[in-house]
């Protein structure tokens, strides 16, 4: 009974495939006739294409830190073919990094993060120019390290560090993305000074005067991977030319990723009384 049911179904399926090949103008394997090239899968996307890929190849992005969120973010930028990345990182790899900082291996413990990250990323894509700066970002070197870049990936691990980048970016008119992960939640938003969008202090008005380091927080690999990927999307959007699609005046949040995978958008218009951006915006 079962055999007589299976055979006609198989027969109908094979005939349908043959008729489809005869009557349809193209076949799926004709549509995607990929050459064996690094970027062919993304260039074939209508919203990407060769012109935007060329734009990406000439992009210059500064990335502060190469920790958890920055691991997936950097891997995405390098795989996609960003032309030049300046990586500012001075820390060393610890065993406690390895649950979420997927750029590193157990054999990297004790070594400089920047050097290991650069080696891994360069191996992923030798076409990307990755410049390592083994320094801590300060108010005295920020102009020299970030000035002239097209986009900044903010990565301060303290309120003071984040406010330093926020203030610099507003003054230098360089957009930046803030991607953050703690516990099983996180969020991403961009600040675009030339559009006078809400700045970091508009989002976190109580943080801009804080100086103390908050210290380590619980976090897992799901949060860092997702936050890094969403952050990379901001950078790629900007560099590919989708500048009207940035996550500004709002943040994309994910909560309880481990248990629920819920995404929400929280709107945050610019605060007219913001003590930081009101000095730069008219
Ligand atoms: Zn502000």
How would you portray this structure in words?
- By secondary structure, the protein is α/β, with parallel strands linked by helices.
- It has one domain (50-279): NAD(P)-binding Rossmann-like Domain (Rossmann fold, 3-Layer(aba) Sandwich).
- Helices cover 38% and strands 16% of the residues.
- It is built from 10 helices and 8 strands.
- The protein has helices spanning 2-23, 28-31, 40-43, 49-57, 68-80, 113-124, 142-146, 159-172, 200-203, 221-240; strands at 60-64, 84-88, 129-133, 151-153, 176-182, 185-191, 250-255, 262-267.
- It has an 8-stranded mixed sheet, with helices on one face.
- Strand 4, helix 8 (159-172) and strand 5 (176-182) form a beta-alpha-beta unit.
- Helix 5 packs parallel to helix 10 (221-240).
- The longest helix is centred in the N-terminal third of the chain and has 22 residues, at 2-23.
- The mean pLDDT is 89.
- Zinc ion (ZN) binds next to helix 9.
Summarize the model shown.
The protein has 282 residues and is α/β, with parallel strands linked by helices. Helix content is 38%, strand content 16%. It has an 8-stranded mixed sheet, covered by helices on one side.
């Amino acid at each position: 009974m079962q055999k007589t049911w299976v055979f006609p179904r198989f027969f109908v399926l094979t005939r349908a495939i043959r008729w489809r090949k005869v009557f349809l103008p193209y076949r799926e394997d004709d549509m995607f006739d990929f050459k064996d090239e690094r970027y062919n899968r993304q260039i074939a996307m209508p919203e990407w294409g060769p012109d935007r890929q060329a734009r990406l190849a000439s992009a210059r992005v500064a990335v502060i830190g190469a920790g958890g969120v920055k691991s997936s973010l950097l891997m995405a930028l390098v795989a996609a073919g960003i032309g030049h990345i300046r990586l500012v990182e001075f820390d060393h790899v610890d065993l406690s990094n390895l649950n979420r900082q997927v750029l590193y291996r157990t054999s990297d413990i004790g070594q400089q993060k920047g050097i290991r990250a650069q080696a891994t990323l360069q191996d992923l894509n030798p076409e990307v120019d990755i410049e390592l700066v083994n320094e801590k970002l300060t108010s005295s070197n920020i102009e020299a390290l970030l000035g002239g870049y097209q986009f900044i990936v903010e990565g301060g691990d303290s309120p003071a560090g984040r406010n330093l980048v926020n203030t610099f970016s507003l003054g230098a008119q360089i957009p930046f993305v803030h991607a953050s992960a703690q516990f099983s939640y996180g969020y991403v938003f961009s600040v675009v000074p030339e559009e006078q969008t809400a700045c970091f202090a508009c989002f976190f008005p109580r943080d801009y005067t804080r100086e103390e380091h908050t210290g380590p927080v619980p976090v897992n690999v799901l949060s860092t991977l997702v936050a890094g990927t969403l952050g990379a999307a901001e950078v790629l959007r900007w560099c590919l030319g989708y500048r009207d699609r940035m996550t500004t005046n709002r943040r994309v949040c994910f909560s309880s990723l481990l248990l629920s995978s819920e995404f929400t958008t929280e709107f945050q218009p610019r605060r007219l009384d913001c003590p930081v951006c009101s000095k730069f915006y008219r």
